[in-house]
Amino acid sequence: MLHSINPATEEILGEVETASKKSVNDAVKKAKSSFSGWASIDLSERALALTKFVSELRKTKKELSVLMTQEMGKPITEAEEEIDGACTEIEWFAKEGKKYLENEIVEIDVPQVKSYIAYEPLGVAGIITPWNFPLETPIWSIAPALLSGNTVVWKPSELVPLFSKEISNLLDTLLPVGVFNLIQGADSTGKSLVDSKVNMLSFTGSSETGKKIASRSGKKLKKIVMELGGSDPCIILKDADIEKTVDGTILGRFLNCGQCCTSAKRFYVEEEIAEEFTSRFVEKTKAMKIGNPLERDTKIGPMASKEQLELLERQVNESVKMGAKVLCGGVRQGSKGYYYLPTVMSDTNQKMPVISEETFGPVAPIVPVKNVKIAVKKANDTHYGLGASIWTKDKEKAEKISKQLRCGIVWINDVNVAYPQCPWGGIKESGIGRELSKYGILEFVNIKSVIVK
Ligand code: NAD
Known about the structure:
By secondary structure, the protein is of the alpha/beta class.
């Protein structure tokens, strides 16, 4: 059995059954037998099923957002925003996806030969997802997989089993039997799915797990898409509007209690403004309300699990032992729940865990730098390559800097925001392939060349 724990109270919210290896294989078999029916119906019918899913999400938004907050601790206003965001994204797939899946004529210079590309589903997509965005992250894979005609077996995170069950129930009522299948459990259930006869895998989670899955699935050369961890740099130039930048980067670091793959995780600030920026950042960090995530004015809820809290605590404490200073926070809050005060640090360096590792929690190390060249060098000095942000009034200069950053997404004067039209993903140990946009749809198809003479 899998227990769902409320991270704000440590109470057990409920339990679900863990899928055995046999149940995983049965789910894959069911998905396989439903594949040809689902793949052969008109794409507009599959798009319609997604549109109906959006209506169901909107109808149940209130209950779903409360459950999301209770199960993983994100403030209720953020849970509501996540459901709104997911609806917009699914609608985009349903409305715009068609044009990327239609046959595409290829002009070739040989008389009497015609050629086109057909975009065909791969079969059963195995989808494994984390807990930090319990709806948005899964639907970035589930929606394009279903739209393009694949059937799905989904293994959500073991931290959000009740929420995932609700989502699966909604989809079940809208889709033919066997098209969408939920299996619940932790790593062993995930391993069974990786070893099963799925035709492809879409994985979102940590780089460490990603490497394990890649080597396991590599034995059968299974196609994989991977959205992994990040340690996104945030580069602040001396001409930046300090107030706007502080507000933007506080949100960028502390949204979802700092538990976003693309949270701003390392701050490199040109030294001319570093002191003023840091003091405003600390002031505003201290003013954020930490507490019950169901209260509408709460900005920081608990971290999602005891393990995440202990990992963050280790990263901060080790960095302090190595010489870093805590300007605010740096400790747990209260005796119940997995609360950690939003934390700002100075005197850090590239070797300290708060810089060299992914910090998945509310910790902001601020590093003054002499110039942009040094900031870029430090920003790229990581095995991650997910996102980065640049803050300045000089947008042209920032676009030039963006070319030097070795990562998959660059925001200028913004951070952590997704648009369904824009590709999402990383390079280096942050991932393989892309989500969202036409590229995120094409991950789920066989790009077939047809040549006719
Ligand atoms: P995680 O890697 O611990 O777990 C992710 C999923 O993989 C869970 O469902 C888990 O049960 C499963 N799993 C664990 N071990 C497995 C194994 N050996 N085989 C198969 N499945 C296995 O990650 P997490 O703690 O749930 O999520 C946080 C991580 O996810 C962070 O690193 C974050 O940056 C990353 N993330 C990335 C993106 C992105 O778009 N790049 C988005 C969200 C989260």
